[in-house]
Amino acid sequence: MNRNGLLHNKGCAMLPNQARSGANRILFLGFMTAMLIGGTITVSAQGDSSTCPAYIETVLDSVSAACAGISRNQVCYGNNSIEAQWNSSIDFAAPGDRASVIALRRLVTAPLQPDAGTWGVAMLALQANLPDATPGQNVTFIVFGDAEVTPERSVPGYDAPMQVFRLSTGITGIACQDVAQSGMIVQAPEATTVNFRINDVEVKVGSSALFQIDGDDLTVDTIEGFIEVTADGATEVAGEGVSVRVPRGGRPLRAALTRLSRASNVPWRLLPRQVRAMPSIPEGQIVSLNDCFHPSAQRAARNPIAVRAGEPIVLRLTIPHSALELARAIQRRTRNALFIDGQTMPPLTRVGPWRGIGEEFGGALGIEVYWALPARESGTVRVRLDMRTLDGQPIMTGVDGPDRDRLPEIILPQRSTFCALQIGGV
What are the boundaries of each domain within the chain? Predict the structure, then answer.
């Protein structure tokens, strides 16, 4: 058992101090995952503060009403103006009209022009690789603004209606500030992963995300869960608060932090499961909780972390893990709570899963969570993390710590760990 008592490794000998310090970077896999990637997000995106929020909100209300109850593999005319081409004669000319995507050849939505009263918005409900036995579950697509979607011929492994398509989005001058001008947002049913091919890029969607075309590049901004993109034999993962760019005909670039202005004011509230863009990483002196926790409050008090007085404090917890499937399993089986001076404190923002900057997770994936504390002049901050597995059973993390047995660590069924911050030095 290592110094904080969270993980027990079979046959693990006592680590030297230097090795124990390195081990702390992997100690908290899973216990915060329910808080990080499993927490329910119920706050919807709000209209911006520009000159046309009333128009935007009116359109979103209209689309929600017009496309309510859309059936599997249907496309709904949400708001004008939309141009659609079909393989047969289909009446699709006004908000509320619906048709099968099987007959769709091309779908074009108009740019946002508040003065003209136009903003093309279409809603689609697709099956993708979801089983036939779950007809009530669909993947939701919202195509909006200056965008075009063209279904393509199916390929092996992608044979459901419109599981293969091309997307293009454009940039046009609009009167609304800070409103995404065009794009496609996608949301998979909760606790599922669905597959598509977009512009010859293989995409796994286990989340809610924004897809746009920037020049010839496909750009994905993940708001909830994760996205995996594969092109030219390479795969990249973009979790919450992370973006990935795929050059046309090339490999995905390394995932990076999302530019929040690009993803914060898209029509997220049209999705069946409400989401919101997470705040950016706060500014301040960063304290790594991975290097701070102890098995008792007394030991934490004897070994406080010194922080500067008069500056905001940012608490950062990193959670490496071996696979996305493992992260979801831990999410379903764990419950956790973080306390600051005895008061529960939810995270301000979270990032990932992603590979981090500079291979900081040792080639594995990782999740980061941040809490922001206001500046203090003096005193001690007491931090406690409570964690448990719902079934009372340990969980294999799939990640090997810096020990000698080369075996994955085990998350214990229940544990509390402690940290102390000394403001103004020790």
Answer: 7-38+279-423, 53-270
Tokens of 407: 């075996």
Residues 123 and 149 sit within 8 Å (Cβ to Cβ): no
Compute the distance between CA of residue 237 and CA of residue 249 in angstroms, rounded to an integer.
18
The three-point CA angle 213-214-219 to 5° equals 65
**pTM confidence score:** 0.82
Which ranges of the chain have pLDDT less than 70?
Answer: 1-51, 171-179, 324-331, 359, 362, 397, 399-409, 425-426
131: helix, strand or coil: coil
Nearest alpha-carbon partner for 322 in 208, 402, 409, 233: 409
**Full strand arrangement of the beta sheet holding 334-340:** 305-307, 414-423, 379-389, 334-340, 343-344
Q: Using CA of residue 380, residue 342, residue 347, residue 414, what is the dihedral sign?
A: positive
Residue 263's SS3 state is: helix
Single-letter amino acid, residue 337: A
Phi, psi angles (nearest 5°) of residue 114: -60, -40
Q: What would the DSSP string read from start to end of 9-61?
A: -TTPPPPPHHHHHHHGGGTTTTTTHHHHTSS---PPPPP-SSS-HHHHHHHHH
Kind and range of the H or E run holding 332: helix 324-333
Per-residue pLDDT tens digits for 360-386 = 776 778 888 899 999 999 999 999 989
Phi, psi of 63 (to 5 degrees): -65, -40
Residue 138's pLDDT is what?
95
Architecture of the CATH domain 53-270: Sandwich (2.60)
Taking the C-alpha atoms of residue 342 and residue 425, their distance in angstroms, rounded to an integer, is 22
Return d(Cα 9, Cα 167) in angstroms, integer. 48
For 318, the token pair is: 């990193």
- Exposure string of 124-142, with b = 16+ CB inside 10 Å and e = fewer, is bbbbbbbeeeeeebbbbbb
SS3 223: strand
Per-residue confidence (pLDDT) for residue 242, from 0 to 100: 93
Residue positions counted in the chain: 426
323/260 Cα distance (integer angstroms):
26
